[in-house]
User: What shape does this take?
Amino acid sequence: MTTTRPTGTGPGRLLVAIYGILALAATARGIYQVATKLSDAPLAYLLSLLAGVVYLVATIALATNRRSLAWAAVLVELVGVITVGTLSLVDVGEFPDETVWSGFGAGYGYIPLVLPFLGIWWLRRTGREESGSSSADSSPDEDAPTVG
Amino acid sequence: MIVPVALLVGVLCLALAGWAAWFVVADRAVVLRQLWGGAVIEAVLLVQAVIAAVMLVVGDHDVDAALFWGYVVTQLIVLPIAAAWAFAERTRWSSVVLLVAAVTVGFLEFRLWQIWENL
Assistant: This one.
C-alpha cells in the first residue's frame, strides 16, 4: 500500500491559497475581458480566460489531493507562462500586457512564473513519502500533536 | 467610494494581517476572535459597496461598472474562504492563509480605489 501525503494540508494550504487567489484574479479578469472587449484581442483574452480556468483546476486538484490532475494543471501553467511570456516580448501587437501570463506574469509580481515551480516541488515532495511505514520519516511535524 | 472607508478597510486589513503574522511566528492556528475581525472587515466592505452603489445611482460618478463590481465581489469572497480553511486546518498554516487573505483584501482595496478613480 502506498500512501502519499495529501497535497492540500499543512504548507500545501498556502500553495492552494495562492493558487486560489490567482485563479480568482485570472478567471474574473478573463471573464471581464471576454465579456466586454473580446474583439480587441481575441487570442489574448481567450488565453487569459483559459489561464484562469487552469488555475482553478490546479487549485481544486491540489486542495482535494488529485495528484495527476494537479500535475497536468501545473505543467500546463509552466508551459503557458513561458510561451505567452516569450510571445508577449516578441510580438507586442498580438499580446497586450493584459493576461496573467504576459511578460512572464510581471503584472502579478511574477507569481505566475514562480508558482508552477513551487507546485512541482510540492507535488514531488508530497509524493515521495511512499509505502506505509513512517519509520524513515524525518519531518517532525508529522506525528507531533499540534497545540494551539 | 469614499476615502475614510477605504482607509478604514486598509487599516483593518493591516491589523488582521499583523495579528495573523504574529500567530504564524508563534506557531498557532487561527482563533475564532480573528475570524470575528475578518467579519468586521466584511461588514465594512458591504457598507462600502452600498455607498458606492448609491453614489453611482445618485451622483454623476463614472466608473467601468463590470470591472468595479467584479473586484467588489472578488474582494468579498477572499476572507470567507480563508475562514473556512481555518476550521479545516488546525495548524499554523491556517494563520499563513489568513495572513495572505488579509493582505490580498487590502491590495484589492487599493486596486478598487484605482478603478473608482479611473486611474
Residues 17 and 99 of chain B are 5 Å apart (CA to CA).
